[in-house]
Each structure stands twice: as structure tokens, then as C-alpha cells.
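Async update (no meeting this week)

Hi team, since we skipped the sync, here's where things stand on the single-chain job. The sequence we agreed to prioritize is pasted below, unchanged from the tracker. I ran it this morning and attached the output directly underneath so nobody has to dig for it. Comments welcome in thread, and please keep replies under the output.
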Amino acid sequence: MRAVGWAKTFPMSGGVREGRKWTREHLAQLPWYETSPDTADAVVLTVSELITNAHLHAHSDAQLVLTWDSRCVHVTVHDDVGGVPQPVRRAPSLAATSGRGISIVDALADSWETHEQQHGKAVTACFVPPSPDGEKHAGHSLK
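Output:
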């Protein structure tokens, strides 16, 4: 198996927009990018949500790592505050401007998990693009 990866830190000032742009530029180098725009969009939206969470809730820069292992795109965002985010089980009010991020990740990713670390936490989501014949590979577990 051949794996590729990229890493970058996105500061609290302007990091979300730049993170989306940086992610899309790197995803465009992967063999499935042109044939699976829905997967690419899901990855970019997840990056946006996770960087936003790092900035808004952890008041932290966000360290983003993207890896492609020939089967799954792994998106990992590390911030400086520990704790395990959980998908919101209640529907946020229509007027709420936040509270949907991890639920969005939960809905888009094939799998995701959180790892507490010595200095903060990392949230990792996995996205399995469809094979060239259009079929989605069997589920990929992060565990």
C-alpha cells in the first residue's frame, strides 16, 4: 500500500477558509478526485467543521493532517483542548448559529473517532470514495 499525506496548521484568524482551499488543492492530486466530487465535497465540509470547532470551542489553532492510504482519506484535526465531542442528539433551534458540526461529520464520514492526547485532542474522520465502477468499498473502521 502506498500512502501520501499533508499537514498544515491553520490559525484562528482566517484558518477555516484557507483550510477548505488547502484541502481541495491537495484532494485534487488524488486519483478519484475527478470521478467522486461528492466525496471531495464531504471531506472539504468536514475540514471546515473541524477547524471551526477547534477555533470556536477550543480557542485554538487547528493542526490538520490529510492522508490517503489508497482506500480511505483520513482527515485529522488536532486542537489544544481535551474532551470528546459527541454528536448533538437534540436538534438545534433553527435560529442557532452553531451546534451542528460534529453531527455533520457523523453524517458525512464513513467513520470517525476522537483521540485524547497529552495536549488536547484529535478528531479523525475516514472517507472511502467509490471504486471506479461506482461501488463504495466495504466500510472502513478507524479502530
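Quick observations from my side:
The CA atoms of residues 73 and 127 lie 5 Å apart.
The two ends are 18 Å apart (CA to CA).
Reply here if anything looks off.
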